[in-house]
Design brief:
- Helices cover 35% and strands 30% of the residues.
- It has eleven helices and 15 strands.
- The strands form three sheets. Strands 6-7-8-3-9-10 form a six-stranded mixed beta sheet, sandwiched between helices. Strands 14-11-13-12-15 form a five-stranded antiparallel beta sheet, sandwiched between helices. Strands 2-1-4-5 form a four-stranded antiparallel beta sheet, with helices on one face.
- The structure holds adenosine-5'-triphosphate.
- Adenosine-5'-triphosphate binds next to helix 1.
- The site of adenosine-5'-triphosphate has 12 residues, from helix 1.
- Pfam families: ABC_tran (PF00005).
- InterPro entries: AAA+_ATPase, ABC_transporter-like_ATP-bd, ABC_Transporter_VariousFunc, P-loop_NTPase.
- Keywords: ATP-binding, Nucleotide-binding, Transport.
Length: 283
């Protein structure tokens, strides 16, 4: 449904070089620290910035050749974008009715009620989390087949984040041919939601993995220096020197558990896997 093929974007101190794919029926996550290149990737997909190289395909077509109807099939949350502060929900509804032929007004208003957004206040009086929910409801309410969501949970508390993740799961359950690309720097949000996860660091994709495999097969191994010298390194991805020897990231934790009982093996959290992927040394 979405193919990002070796896109490049050069800023003064930043170079993006990214390849990724979002198939129909999948929720794909993009995770990375501040400044890693998530928003730049999303803007590139949305054709909001000029590319220095590569291409983006949406629904099998170059992204700059989509018809108005095809563009309506994409629901977008981008960081920063919002309506005028003086609008109230009823004004937003009027605009959405004019912009989207497929605008689902009843669904939109039921979400506004379900998530308790105030209908008698101007947007400038909305909290950050309320504004973030409003942006997401707009993306969800014009029957899009692909959602491109840049940090949709930014500014939300734990309860609101959980509610929103439930909403996204419901959206996929309604029609399994849909797809979602979602970014976050909070790994917990993506861990329980996404089918696969891309990690971006300094503009490059440093890891792409099925979420189940990431959680079941990746792990951290702790071993003495002596063991490190003799261990089979074919499934070691990164290493880090420690006082006791080495800690290593593996994508085959069971292999080491079965064959090296003297090695301490721990299933890593996604945050630990990211830290080792980014900060660890090549083996
Ligand atoms: N218009 C621009 N001009 C120059 N540099 C830019 C521009 N837009 C982004 N950058 C730089 O590109 C890099 C990536 O920024 P980007 O917003 O894509 O990161 P991000 O992963 O979305 O970060 P965050 O989690 O903080 O939102 C940063 O170093 C940023 O300073």
């Amino acid at each position: 449904m979405l193919k990002v093929n070796k896109i490049e974007k050069n800023y003064k101190n930043f170079h993006l070089n990214c390849t990724m794919e979002v198939p129909a029926g999948c929720i794909t996550g993009l995770i990375g620290e501040n400044g890693a290149g998530k928003s730049t990737t999303f803007k590139a997909i949305e054709n909001l910035i000029f590319l220095d190289g590569g291409s983006v395909e949406l629904f099998g077509k170059p992204h700059d050749q989509l018809t108005a109807e095809e563009k309506q099939k994409i629901g977008v949350v981008l960081s920063g974008s919002t309506f005028s502060d003086v609008y109230m929900i009823k004004d937003v509804v009027k605009i959405l009715e004019a912009v989207y032929p497929d605008f689902e007004k009843e669904k939109f208003l039921s979400l506004v009620e379900r998530f308790r957004l105030p209908q008698d206040q101007k947007l400038k009086e909305f909290s950050t989390g309320m504004k973030a929910k409003l942006k997401l409801f707009i993306a969800l309410c014009h029957n899009a087949s692909l959602l491109i969501l840049d940090e949709p949970t930014a500014g939300m508390d734990v309860v609101a984040r959980d509610e929103v993740l439930t909403l996204l799961r419901e959206y996929m359950e309604e029609d399994e041919s849909r797809a979602i690309l979602i970014s976050s720097h909070i790994s917990g949000d993506l861990e329980g939601l996404c089918d696969d996860i891309y990690m971006i660091h300094e503009g490059r994709i440093v890891l792409h993995e099925d979420t189940d495999r990431l959680l079941s097969s990746y792990g951290l191994l702790k071993m003495t220096e002596e063991r490190f010298r003799t261990v089979d390194r074919s499934h070691l991805l990164k290493k880090k020197k420690e006082s006791y020897g080495y800690s290593c990231l593996t994508d085959e934790i069971r292999y080491y558990m079965e064959n090296y009982p003297d090695i301490t093996a721990e299933k890593g959290s996604i945050d630990e896997i990211i830290m080792m992927t980014v900060k660890g040394e090549a083996v």
